[in-house]
Amino acid sequence: MYSSLEYSVVDISKQQSVLESIERLLHLAGLELDPRLSVFVIAIVDSKIVACAGIDRDIIKCVAIDPDYRGNNINLGLLEYTIKYANEHGQFHLFLYTKPENKIFFRSCGFYPIVEVPDLVVLMENTPIGIKRYCQQLSLEKKPGNKIGSIVMNANPFTKGHQYLAETAAAECDWLHIFVVNEDASMFSFADRFELVKAGVSHLKNVSVHASSSYIISKATFPSYFLKEQAKIDKAYMGIDLLIFRNYIAPALNITCRFVGTEPTSEVTNAYNEAMAYWLQDSQVSSMPVIPLIVLERIKENNFAISASRVRALLENQCYDEIKALVPPTTWTYLQNKYM
Amino acid sequence: MKKLRRSMLFLPAANAAMLSTSFVYKPDSIMFDLEDAVSIKEKDAARLLVAQTLQLPIYKESGIETVVRINALNTPFGLKDLEAVVRAGVDVVRLPMTNSAEDIHELEQHVERIEKECGRPVGSTKLMAAIESALGVVNAVSIAKSSPRLIGIALAAFDYLVDMQTERGDGTELFYARCAVLHAARVAKIDAFDVVYSNVNDDAGFLNEVNLAKKLGFNGKSLINPRQIELLHNAYAPTAEEVEYSKKVVEAAEEGEKAGLGVISLNGKMIDAPIIARARTIIELAAVSGVRKAI
Amino acid sequence: MKIQKEALAGTLESSDLMVKVSPNSGIEIIVNSEVNKQFGAQIRSVVESTLAQLNVTDGLIVIDDKGALDCAIKARVQCAVLRGAEVEELDWSKLL
C-alpha cells in the first residue's frame, strides 16, 4: 500500500506538464496517445503520475501503469475511479478496446468481452448483458423466411446506387434488413440519412430500415494507439465490426446473407469488402454460421459508378444538374430544399 | 472488571475489506469513521456499510466495542448517520468537534428519540466526545460531565493545533490540552484517549508517545494502523516484576484480612487500600494482556 | 420501488463488490463472482432478500463480486438501489 496514493482527473489540453508525463507513461507501456483524448484519470504516488486512463465519451482508452508500480492494485483503483467519473458524467455503458493479453485484468474490473480478433484486439463492455439485451431487442424485428438479406450503409446521402442495391437484394430475399450507420461524423446528419433511406426504399414491401447501434462501431472512435501499423489497425477494426455482425446481429434477425456493392473507385472500401468476405465466410474465425457475402456490380451513370462521395463532390462544386441523375427523387427534393 | 479501552482503531467506513477483517487484530474498540475518511459522494454508501457491518455477531462475541464517528450534526450528514447507527445497535457514538456541553445535550436528545422510535432501551447508546478546538479544551470539564451516556473524551490534535496556531512537534504543543482533557475525564470518572500518531512507519516515535500518554494517565490511544495495536497493548501491559509484586500485595492483604489485622504490611512497608486496589487491577490487566515483552 | 435511473455502488477492491442497477421491467439479477462456483447461489439469495426487504419490483441488478461478506453485499445492493430509485428518506426498519 502507498500511503500517498491519490486519483484525480486532468485535462491534458490545459496542462502541458501532465501531458508530457502521460506520454512518457504510455511509451513505457508501448502505447501512443490517442489524438481524441483530453480527459485522463491519473494515479499519483509521491507527486508522481504512475498510471493513467483516458476517457473518450463512452470509451476508455490509453490505460497504462508504470512498470515499477504494477501488482499493487493501483490499476484496479484507477479503473474504478474512471468508471465512477464516467458515470457522474452520464456515461454508464462503457466500452474499451485492448490487447487480448489484458482481457483478464479488465474482466476483474467488471468488463466483459464482446468479440476478439486473435492477437490484435478485444472489445469489452462494462455489462455482462449489454449486447445480449441489444440482440433481444433486435430480435423483435425478426421476419419469417428462408433467405433474409442485409445491407449496412452510411448513405451519405442515399443515391440511386443504394436504391439499386436495396431493390436487387430485396428481390432476391424473403426479407431485407438495412442498417444505417448511426453516427454524426458524416456530412449529412444521421437523422437526415435515416429518413432518406426510409423514403428511398418505401416502395419495397419486404424491407426494414434500422439504426445501427453502438455495437456497429465507428471508425472515428476506434482506437489505434496500441496497434500502430495501419494494416493491423484496419484488420482489427474490420474484424471487430464484422464479428459483431456475424456473432450477434445476424443471429438475432436470422440473417442469412449480406449484400454489398463493388467499390471500383476506392481502394480502402475495396479492402473492406475483402475483409468482409473473410470475417463473414471463414469457418475458423467464428463459431457462428457463415454469412455468404453477395457482391453486386454498381450501376453507372455516364460511365461513372454512382457513389455518395461523387454526389458530395458535385454538391460542393454546385453542379446541381448532374446530381439529379444520381439520386432518387426523394433525395433530390431534400437536397433542393436544403442546398439550392 | 471495567471495560478496557487501550486501543481504539480507526477504520475508514467506506472500505469493505477493512471493515470485514479488522476484528482479527483484536483492538479494544473499533471506530468506524463516517467523517473525514469518507468523501462527500460516498457518505450514503459508507453509512449503509457500517450499519450492516454492525450486524455481524463477531463484535459482540469477541468483546470488541463498536464506535462510530458520525459527521457533525450541523452538516447534512450528521443526523442521517445517527439515525443509522443507533438503529444498527452501535455501542458508542463519537461526536467530532465537541465545543461545549450543549453539543452533547443536542446529540443526546436525538439519540433518545431514535432509541424510542426503534425500540432500543433508552440509555443503551453510549457517547464519546472528541475535543478538537481550544474552546473544547477550555470546556473539557463541563463536556465530560454533560451526560451519563458519556464513556470517554478524546483529544484530536489536527484541528486543535490549527486552532492554536501551531503544529505537531515533540508533544510540548499538546501538553496543556492533554492535561486538561485528562483532568476533565478523571473529574467525571470517564475514560480519556490520547491523539492519533500518524507516522505508521515510526515504531520508536509511536512508543515514545504511548509511554508519555500512559504516564500521564490516559486509558488509551486512537490508532490508525492495526500494526500499532500490539505495540500499544504491550506497552500498557504490566511488567513481570509489577505482576509478581502485585500478587504478593494481594496475598498479604488477604492474609491480613483473615487474621483481622487493621494495618497490613509487606516486607516491613505498610500497604493501604489504594495500593491493594491497584495491585488487583494489575493482576486483572495481566490476565487480559499478559506481561510486557521486551522489544 | 422501481429503479428509475442507472446507478452504481461499491468498489472493485478485494472483499468488496460493485453493484450496477438500471431500469428494467421486472427484476433481473446477474451475479458474477470470483468465487461464483462456490457462492453464486448464496450471493444471489442475499441480493434477492435485500431487494424484497426494500420492495423493489423492477430493476436490473448486476453484481461483480470480489469475495465480499454478506453484510457488504447487502449494504452495496441497498446503496445502489436507493441511488437508482432516487430515494432520499430511508426507512431503517426495512434496511436492517
Automatic annotation (TrEMBL), chain A:
It comes from the Bacteria. SMART domains: Citrate_ly_lig. Pfam families: Acetyltransf_7, Citrate_ly_lig. Signal peptide: none annotated. It catalyses: holo-[citrate lyase ACP] + acetate + ATP = acetyl-[citrate lyase ACP] + AMP + diphosphate. Residues 1-129 form the N-acetyltransferase domain. GO terms for molecular function: [citrate (pro-3S)-lyase] ligase activity; acyltransferase activity, transferring groups other than amino-acyl groups; ATP binding. Keywords: ATP-binding, Ligase, Nucleotide-binding. It is an enzyme of class 6 (ligase). Its EC number is 6.2.1.22. Acetylation of prosthetic group (2-(5''-phosphoribosyl)-3'-dephosphocoenzyme-A) of the gamma subunit of citrate lyase. NCBIfam families: cit_ly_ligase, cyt_tran_rel. This is [Citrate [pro-3S]-lyase] ligase. The gene is citC.
Automatic annotation (TrEMBL), chain B:
One of its GO terms (molecular function) is citrate (pro-3S)-lyase activity. Its main location: cytoplasm. Its EC number is 4.1.3.34, 4.1.3.6. Keywords: Cytoplasm, Lyase, Magnesium, Metal-binding, Signal. It is found in: Cytoplasm. InterPro entries: Aldolase/citrate-lyase_domain, Citrate_lyase_beta/mcl1/mcl2, Citrate_lyase_beta_bac, Pyrv/PenolPyrv_kinase-like_dom, Pyrv_kinase-like_dom_sf. Mg(2+) binds at E132, D159. GO terms for biological process: acetyl-CoA metabolic process; oxaloacetate metabolic process. It catalyses: citrate = oxaloacetate + acetate; (3S)-citryl-CoA = oxaloacetate + acetyl-CoA. Residues 6-226 form the HpcH/HpaI aldolase/citrate lyase domain. GO terms for cellular component: ATP-independent citrate lyase complex; cytoplasm. Substrate binds at R69, E132. Pfam families: HpcH_HpaI. It is an enzyme of class 4 (lyase). Belongs to the HpcH/HpaI aldolase family. Citrate lyase beta subunit subfamily. NCBIfam families: citE. This is Citrate lyase subunit beta. It comes from Candidatus Schmidhempelia bombi str. Bimp. The lineage of its organism: Bacteria, Pseudomonadati, Pseudomonadota, Gammaproteobacteria, Orbales.
From TrEMBL, chain C:
GO terms for molecular function: lyase activity. InterPro entries: CitD, Mal_deCO2ase/Cit_lyase_ACP. Keywords: Cytoplasm, Lyase, Phosphoprotein. Pfam families: ACP. The keyword Phosphoprotein applies. GO terms for cellular component: cytoplasm. Its main location: cytoplasm. It is found in: Cytoplasm. It comes from the Bacteria. The modification O-(phosphoribosyl dephospho-coenzyme A)serine is found at S14. Belongs to the CitD family. Oligomer with a subunit composition of (alpha,beta,gamma)6. Covalent carrier of the coenzyme of citrate lyase. This is Citrate lyase acyl carrier protein. It comes from Candidatus Schmidhempelia bombi str. Bimp. The gene is citD.
